[in-house]
Amino acid sequence: MSVAILPPVMPGLRAALNLHSPAGVRARLATLIFHRVLPAPDPLCPDEMHALRFDALCAWLARSFNVLPLDQAVRALRQGGLPARALAISFDDGYADNHDTALPILQRHGLPATFFVATGYLDGGRMFNDTVIEAVRRAPGLQLDLRAPETGALGLLPLDGWPERRAAVAHILGGIKYLPLAQRPQVAQAIAAAAGATLPDDLMMTRAQVRALHGAGMTVGGHTVSHPILAALDEAAQLDEVIQGKQRLEQITGAPVTLFAYPNGKPGTDYDTHSVAAVRQAGFEAAVSTAWGAAHRSTDLFQIPRFTPWSDSRPRFAAHMLRNYWRTPERAAA
């Protein structure tokens, strides 16, 4: 799965996009989701977006869509005033390369974006998944022994080459992703210790970088403090995560934070109806999930779908986008 350098707009594509996403009350809003934009390709994470791919993608998006700030798009959607081919761009988590790599590319193409930031990792923090990825990357041996209970009892994993290391990362993350919030980083750190790895502390943004995004005209949105699986928390803990993250971002930017992204974002699995209620109670105006689909006028604005049509060719990319306009997104059970 990759997004190659994209050729010019195909004849007839804009007409097809207009048909699938017309202006006005029948409009549909496609919202793309990204996490990182690396400076260069990464053999451990070959599907991760990098600068060359992102620059080509942004060039095509600028030519083919009406790209709007997500908050403006949500208001226009509510009022029935979206333009044809409406699209918004979003990033989750708060990686430093969002500021260092993605921002200059977005600015070069005149594209707005929304950055959903988990505040607990700013200024030198590191998410559990990155602890795992960087531990596997830096492990010096050809095997990683995770048979001990403190490392999740995940077995003896081969690390002979990049394919084996990619498989090890997938295996580990699958085994610890849904551990209790307090246990997850402990196990990840034990895995790093077993790997004998010294880990980076500059993967996430600083507060100054978040302010710079806001100062550049980008939107900053809430993403909790510690990026928990909200559905695994009780109602009070969910509300605290949502409110505390919002308040800290407002302190950093000096501006209201009106948009929220559910961590991981799968309806009914990663967030539930209590999560939606917490986001409403916290005073957000809208929230996004990771359910595929496009929003229309009757969409619950606190469960807006998002989508990234990963593909290695622009025609396939466009075809996936067109299908996505008519996909019915999942929602958290009522």
Tell me what the structure shows.
- The chain has helices at 13-20, 51-64, 70-79, 96-108, 128-138, 162-176, 183-195, 207-215, 235-253, 273-281, 314-324; strands spanning 29-34, 66-67, 86-93, 114-117, 143-146, 155-158, 219-222, 259-261, 286-288.
- It folds into two domains: 13-123 and 202-324, Alpha-Beta Barrel (TIM Barrel); 128-195, no CATH class.
- The two termini are 34 Å apart.
- The protein has eleven helices and nine strands.
- It is of the alpha/beta class.
- Strand 3, helix 4 (96-108) and strand 4 form a beta-alpha-beta unit.
- 48% of the residues are buried.
- The strands form three sheets. Strands 1, 2, 3, 4 and 7 form a five-stranded parallel β-sheet that branches. A two-stranded antiparallel ribbon has the order 5-6. The chain has a two-stranded parallel sheet with strand order 8-9.
Please compute the radius of gyration using only Cα atoms: 20 Å
- Summarize the helix and strand pattern as letters: HEHEHEHEHEEHHHEHEHEH
Task: Figure out the total of helices.
Answer: 11
Percentage of helical residues? 25-40%
CATH T-level fold name of the largest domain: TIM Barrel
Total strand count, please? 9
CATH homology-level superfamily of the largest domain: Glycoside hydrolase/deacetylase
